[in-house]
Design brief:
Subunit structure: Homodimer. Interacts with LigD.
Order of helices and strands: EEEEEEHEEHEEEHHH
Mean pLDDT: 82
Number of helices: 5
Strand content: 25-35%
Pfam families: Ku
CATH topology of one domain: Ku70, Chain: A, Domain 2
Protein name: Non-homologous end joining protein Ku
Oligomer: single chain
Keywords: DNA damage, DNA recombination, DNA repair, DNA-binding
Organism: Viridibacillus arenosi FSL R5-213
Amino acid sequence: MHTVWKGSISFGLVNIPVKLHTATENKDIKLRQLHKDCNTPISYKKVCEGCNKEVKDEDIVKAYEYAKNKFVVLDAEELENLRKENEDKAVEIIDFVKIEEIDPIYFDRSYFLSPDATGSKAYSLLRKTLEESGKIGVAKIVIRSKEQLAIVRVYKDSLVMETILFPDEVRNVVDVPNIPSEQTVVKKELDTALLLVKQLTTVFEPTKYTDEYRTSLMELIEEKKNSSTVTASDRQNPMPDNVMDLMTALQASLDKTKKKPTRKKKTAKAKTS
């Protein structure tokens, strides 16, 4: 499993060297965009609106737009120093709370935590402590240059870290339009609704839920792939300027060696004449 972060988690004086692994994966089916006339994939270029020309990566800087068309340019070195300054810090569990106290709207992404070679004993201690206390740890961590609030909890036999949103990242519910004010509910309707809930109440089994749209889409793709409806591009995709096909490189080398002796012979004849 790919490691996305290495560091340590501490609670009190206990320090646990750990690795972070992405716990979930996006199963969305990615569809390419093709030119309708020739079925060639569409590419996107970085173009400067002011100069109306394509811009290379090395000519791009990062900036914060604090007002319309007014920017504060941030130097790459400044950003890198700021990132290192925060990433070098260990993840410290600052509080222990009950998971029921955190509304699901705050949860973001999940990561598996695995102990480093020397961290198994401390890892087991934290896992057992969380199990016995019935609590989860609240911590801070910097991932990909962004400081994240996170919780550490037990999931089966492992520790899981889940990033959660900061309070100012959750929009205020009062800004949601057309929310009805509290109204009197007809008792008969409520009783019927509660009866329906009771009939549909069960134990949560995640394996019984599947993405029916994704399954149907893959079936359609396989059906078209195995039929005569498969299309191919009329031409090969142009290769990037900095990438050369191996056969092309070999042929160019052969052509270059063939041309050298030919030039020498012509030069020699010219001198003789």
